[in-house]
Amino acid sequence: MFRRPKGLHSVQFEKLMPTPFESATLNLQLFDLRREPVLREAREWFVRDFNPETLAELAEIVSGPRNASFRMVLGYWDMAASLVTTGAIDADAFRAAHSEVFATFGKVQPFLDAIRTGSDEPDFCKHLEAVVLGAPDVQALLDRRLAALREATRGRKQT
Question: What is the CA radius of gyration of the chain?
Fold first, then answer.
């Protein structure tokens, strides 16, 4: 949630908040960036095939050829979410336009503490985490998204 910086009066603060048009414009620009071919392929892999169940599986995946994809996807979404946490984009507008963040975050959430500790990066995905966890009824939403992804994965493996 965006908070008023200390020392700013309400009139100054209102000037810092994005207008609906500004939020929409930035959301469309973020959407356009998602179409870049390398990022698009990395996002598809992340949502479809990145399914570690243990920290050991995660470590194996990210130490292999998909390391760049892992970093690209999470780096993109954390950067995009930083536009929300810094007040450039309205949080509800962002979550409505980029619902993929829920599946992405849900896949790394169980490992966040270990990743942050192991990499000595305590702020790893902090913007993504703040934006996702700021959604109403977020745990039910994450559970639904991850269940749907697991079902889709099972369906692909059976064919």
Answer: 17
Q: How far apart are CA 47 and CA 53, in angstroms?
A: 14
89, 27 in Cβ contact below 8 A?
A: yes
CA distances from 157 to 49, 54, 104 (A): 11, 20, 21
d(CA 5, CA 103): 31
User: pLDDT digits over 12-71, tens only?
Assistant: 444 467 888 988 899 899 999 999 999 999 999 999 999 999 999 999 999 999 999 999
- The enclosing H or E element of 139 equals helix 138-158
> Please, what's the largest Cα pairwise distance for the chain?
61
pTM of the model: 0.84
